[in-house]
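Subject line: Sequence and fold of a protein, written as structure tokens
Enclosed: The protein record, placed directly beneath this head.
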Amino acid sequence: MEQLREEDQVSMTIENPEMLLSSDSEAESSSNPRLEHNFRLFKTNGMIKLEENNKEHGLIKSGFITCMGPLAKQVEVVAIHKNSCSTLLGKARLEAFRIFSEAVREKCNGNANIKYAWFGSSKEEIGNIISHGFSTTTEPKSGECFGIGVYLYPANFDGVLSAVEDENGLRHMLLCRVILGNTEEIAAGSTQSQPTSEEFDSGVDNIVAPTTYTIWASHMNSHIFPNFLVSFRCPNYLLGSSKIRKVPLKPTPRIKFPDLLRALSKFLHPSRMASISKYYEDFQRSKITKLVLVRKLRQIAGDTSLRAVMKLYPHKDIGN
């Protein structure tokens, strides 16, 4: 598997620019026969176990534990496997993912919006995904639904409840590359099962600061590519605690756009602020839609600046 380009690097929520998906890792022999047998399901389908001194292993483990937030001290990463794409089917899936990446990149004016995201399930289901691909849509174990599709999460903490404990007390989460393309915001509780128009490729729970990605069933085996598998232990009592259980989303107050502009002015160059202000004026005159305004806002300000602003207003969404 060739080394990927700079834009395909893992981001460690995962957001670490050093982490390239190279193919120079070797399988590690396990000293625990029971665990070795447990991982056989993955290894027979082209997954290789990364050694603990492997750079990718260290970066993924560090990012995984850090993103577990209040559960970090109780989480033990037992093994990390990587998709070697060594089987004929594995090679075909990688090539298909690249083809669709290019198609979406061309459709979206040069940006396929490829992200890394987490998917948790049972050992058997993950084995089936590695062997045959995604076959069913998923539902969140807690919180609201955002359409009918496959749910993935930028942060592993948000999807850990979907990781079902196996007979050896291990849970498993896939770290996948996901083609998001043009995203549309899906309302909580929605039963939407496909894009509202050809303009869109995937759904998110929040257009500015998404915590849930919804990949429609028609795209689940072309727009999702499993890259790594993290096997870990986490005490059952923690998964049932208030530290991790999500609650249904409630309507929140909205940040008025003028307030957002004032906050952004602390982070952005005046020339960028002038561009954003112009798009806001166009929106007020009904020359562009709110969706276009938000998209331009993200392009000009960047998600890093927007996240910094949202921390100043932790209980609000962006309004008009």
Observations:
- The two ends are 47 Å apart (CA to CA).
- The chain has ten helices and eleven strands.
